[in-house]
């Protein structure tokens, strides 16, 4: 069972695509901000989308194995579209809502805590915040998709 699982190339391509996309977020973030953030390896959101990389890597690998006319490829392709739509739509909007909710929490907490000294308060309070980087911009989804496709093509054209 374990050996056959390790010989499942579409699964391995999908898993490697996630790991690669998560890892590459760190140097991309460094190039943009000049800050190293190893926490990006385990976080959601950011460039490229590891969700998109994974599902397109899986779908491309299935295309190599079963052909574009197979029912399993159709299932994988539809799965990919749904995941990428969700990553760039619903989850992105949830992140935008989290930004507003965090601000409301800060404002309410400040009001309750310092009601007596309200005129004297600054904006230095730091509270635990909801995660605002939940989803992806369309460009992040696009480059995540290209990452998965690229990894699958390299695997099937040059490694197998």
Could you give the topology of this structure?
Elements: H1 2-6, H2 9-33, H3 50-66, H4 71-88, H5 90-113, H6 138-159
Organism: Lysinibacillus contaminans
Protein name: Membrane protein
Pfam families: DUF212
Q: What does this protein structure show overall?
A:
- This protein has 160 residues and is mainly α.
- It has 2 domains: 2-89 and 137-159, no CATH class; 91-134, no CATH class.
- It contains 6 helices and no strands.
- Helix 2 (9-33) packs across helix 6 (138-159).
- It is elongated, with a radius of gyration of 21 Å.
- The model is unreliable at 124-130 (pLDDT under 50).
Q: Quick summary of this structure?
A:
The protein is an all-alpha fold.
How would you state the average pLDDT, rounded? 81
CA-based gyration radius: 21 Å
* Distance N to C terminus: 21 Å
Strand content: under 5%
Oligomer: single chain
**Total domain units:** 2
By DSSP, the count of extended strands is 0
Structural class: mainly alpha
Name the poorly predicted regions: 124-130
Keywords: Membrane, Transmembrane, Transmembrane helix
Pfam family, one: DUF212
Transmembrane segments: 70-87, 141-159
Protein name: Membrane protein
């Amino acid at each position: 069972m374990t050996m056959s699982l390790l010989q499942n190339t579409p699964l391995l391509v999908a898993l490697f695509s996630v790991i690669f996309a998560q890892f590459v977020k760190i140097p991309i973030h460094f190039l943009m901000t000049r800050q190293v953030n190893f926490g990006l390896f385990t976080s959601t959101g950011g460039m490229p989308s590891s969700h998109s990389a994974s599902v397109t890597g899986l779908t491309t690998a299935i295309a190599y194995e079963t052909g574009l006319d197979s029912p399993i490829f159709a299932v994988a392709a539809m799965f990919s579209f749904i995941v990428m739509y969700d990553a760039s739509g619903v989850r992105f909007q949830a992140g935008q809502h989290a930004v507003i909710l965090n601000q409301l929490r800060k404002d309410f907490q400040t009001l309750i805590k310092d009601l007596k000294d309200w005129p004297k308060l600054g904006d230095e309070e730091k509270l635990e915040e909801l995660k605002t980087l939940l989803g992806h911009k369309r460009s992040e989804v696009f480059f995540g998709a290209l990452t998965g496709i690229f990894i699958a093509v390299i695997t099937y054209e040059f490694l197998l």
